[in-house]
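The methods section describes the discrete structure representation at length, but only in general terms. An entry of this sort, consisting of the sequence and the corresponding backbone structure tokens, reads as follows.
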Amino acid sequence: MRALWWEANDKKLSFVEDAVEPTVTKPDEVKVKVAFSGVCGSDFHFMGGEMGKFSTKPDGVVLGHEFSGIVVEVGTGVENIKVGDEVSVDPNFCCENCVWHEEKKPQFCERNVAVGVKQNGGWAEFCVVPNKLVYKLPETVSLDGGALAEPYSCVLRGWKLMDQLPMKTAKVLIQGAGIIGSMFACLFHVKGYNNVTICEPHEGRRNTCSGLGFGYDVIHPQELDLLMAGKDADTHGFDVIFDCTGNCKAVQKTISLARRGAFISMFGCCPAGEKIEIEPFQIYWKELKISGSFINPFCFEEAVGMLKILNEKNLLDLNKIGVKIFELSDFEAAFASLKRGDAAKAMFKM
């Protein structure tokens, strides 16, 4: 079986053609022949050892936690999924025997053996996962679009953490026009928001976001500085800010851009251990609501349903949203394309 094998102890990712093909050994397991598997920004953090407690299995693992595929085998206890179903996989689950399960906060379970992190994932031709993680795709959603279910479930989680939805006239800022920034732009568009600014330094990604046709302002960070020059952010700042960059300097800047009463989501994954400086008075004075957003609890099923709506609006066209497809063996080219900003997202086609 072809796979990308990550050795955390050696910090080495290798393409192998003779990985052991997994088999169904438990009644509740499902074997998926992977069709498409995405590269997430957090994968780079995993490989860089920048995820703190949420690190990869140290003695080797197949990465890849965003993927779709076709079911080729099911355990004896599986009834809701059958061979031939086209599915997407939620990589996260709780041990269901801890305080976080009792408090309905499964994302905090420290025994979460996430697929593509703690156990073998989707950067391979086949993957075996528990049945409870497998979701059948709508008939109108293709397998390549289905591989976006996991990132969209995380985006939905960030959206739901707003304690109340902003008014439709709210000024919204999305920092970063990679795939997550584009997904947030799609979500705000579908929800009917028109006053949205997207800030991105890379011209290609700005062009991709502009090409979505939402009429949003897509600007360079320097233009953002000019936009705010001479204005009192207390009154003229942004009501909602989603930082999708994972860049500490960009995150720190959100405080100065926020209007009084604003909601700020530090959605992007800054490396563990890095720090920012914040003036606490501004949080007090502006009554800011600052939120993190970690993975996707209780959002995957809704995300799969939302794919159908996005597809109807032609927002699952991978070319349109800046996704580039690569062979698994071309992983170095895929990573380089992401780091250059040529692609909003890279995806492996098996």
